[in-house]
Amino acid sequence: MTQAEEFTGIPGVAPRADRGVPPDRAARTGDDAHGTTRGGAERPDTAPPPSDFFAVAALSYAATVSSPSDGDLWPSAWADDGGLYAACGDGLGFSDGPWSDIVINRIDGDPGSGLSGQRLASGRDVAPVWTDPARFNSKPTGMVAVDGDGDGHDELYLAVQDLHCGPSPDTFNTAPAAGIVRSRDYGRTWTAPERAMFTDEFTTVMFLDFGQSNTGAAVLRDAVGPGEADPAGYVYAYGLDHNWRTSYSGVVPDPQDLYLARVPAASVLDRATWAFFSGLTPDGVPTWSPRLADRVAVLTDTRRVGTAAPVPMAPPPVPGSVLAQGGIVYNPGLARYLYTSWTEYTFEFYEAPAPWGPWRPFLSHDFGPFPWSGPRSAEPRHGGYATTIPSKFLSADGRDAWVQSNWFVGASTYGGSSYHFSLRPLRLDPMPEPGTAGPAPVAEPADGNLAAAPGTRAIATACRSGRIEVLNDGRTDRAEDSWNGLVKDTEYWGYTWPGPVRFERLEFTSGPHDYGSGWFDAPPQVQVRRGADWTAVPATVDPPYPADWTATGRRTYTFTVAPQVGTGVRLVGRAGGWAGYTSVSELAVFGARPGTGDGGRMAP
């Protein structure tokens, strides 16, 4: 948020139908040099298949760790001196001021013991504005710590972009230039080039976080061809074209392609030494080209959110693309690369076995429309933007991570916002190998209710209040519903487990009496997850599900299936009524007898 500027509604958001397409847009939305068609609806639908790597991917509905800081974005790097260095935009950083468009900070502590920080540098002492300073200011997009000059101490390299600012429909909607600045004294002073390194394309640069001092890059030594240079001597960076997220005014095309580059750690500031991923050899070895025009996207995703109709009395949806400035981190405990992206109301996370992919979506988390409730609220629920996972806070086994994101639109004074360096937990459990034999490894509670088993994670299409735990809290006096302001084709309530479970019965208890919505418009299906696939299985329902308002009122319906084995189960259907949601106060899952269900083996 830019100081001394006032916005109505979401900064930079202007419905394209209201504003129209700029006259020069036609010249920018045709086929480009890379054979892709720019723009939103102009491109054919391209989306990667879903990931089957994680059995559990569970994210908190709100930030749980705050810090005495102010600002957004916060790309970070873990340096050899043990500090986490991070750059924020539009704020004070870890200080009382003055305000600046870019602030460098050192952060100490951890999510368990608490976070503290120190402001180190800001504004034009960090980076220039390469475009018109009257219409653009500087924003951080990526950071890396690496000893490139061989003096035994890390330098910090910060990617910055010129982002449109001021009272204009194009505010935050175009980033025409980007460059790299360097600090040799851990963020206190900076050296910047006179001219931008990139213009129009590759202008949102996100360095791959390979852990402390970039040492994790050594893992790539197994992925190079004979005679290739040591990949551990490189810094890797991803880039988006034109803007850092959806261009709500339509002044430039929305980002739909993610690109990858590398540069020797000794010459990060030298554009001539940058090379761009240009494909794979038949043997799967990556190839690189110094020409930007030769690059090949490592991820293309043309999906758009916010395209469904709103339910009555809901705010209008905010359409947008799903690729945006976030972060890419290597998780050594799981040997996986994670890209954390976002949209106005959702988080969109991807994983890959290598920096060049294949990238697959593994988590889409819907927080619903504004207003959100802040971290100090009784029922906190909020998403955010510029999502990153600092490598410093990854657990040794990779299963516990912390997501940083920011939000301020419509925040209440009492509940607060996350417009500061804030963290929320992310739990990741890998999927068991297909063909796992023997008894289900998830321990069954004494009462047989697998919803209460260790490692169980409740899942839902959306939660109005963010209280997903009501599904398995053992109480029916509290309920949650799936309202997110949109008409949904399908929705679900269910669970995932870190290992296979064997079950044959679900007991679904509806929410309180409701006459506008709260029920399914037909008896919901039971679906079982094996790998990435959810498969419907026949079920009997007792008592019969009425599919109207009489299904509400905390009534319990028992769904019985043939014994099943899977890592997840859910009830799926379409909401009935005019308000577009279903409600639930409890969902229990009961195990099957040992030796029953798919022959006692996990299916592929």
Number of strands: 34
The span between the termini is 48 Å
Rg computed from alpha carbons, rounded to a whole number of angstroms: 25 Å
Number of helices: 1
Poorly predicted tracts of residues: 1-41, 599-604
Shape designation: globular
Q: Name the structural class.
A: mainly beta
DSSP strand content = 35-45%
The major sheet is characterized as: 10 strands, mixed
The whole-number mean of residue pLDDT values reads 90
Helical proportion? under 10%
Provide the fold topology.
Elements: H1 16-19, E1 54-59, E2 70-78, E3 84-93, E4 100-110, E5 114-122, E6 136-146, E7 155-164, E8 177-183, E9 198-199, E10 204-209, E11 234-240, E12 257-264, E13 275-280, E14 286-289, E15 299-300, E16 304-305, E17 320-321, E18 327-331, E19 336-342, E20 346-352, E21 360-366, E22 385-388, E23 400-406, E24 423-430, E25 457-460, E26 480-481, E27 491-510, E28 517-520, E29 525-530, E30 533-537, E31 540-542, E32 556-573, E33 575-577, E34 583-591
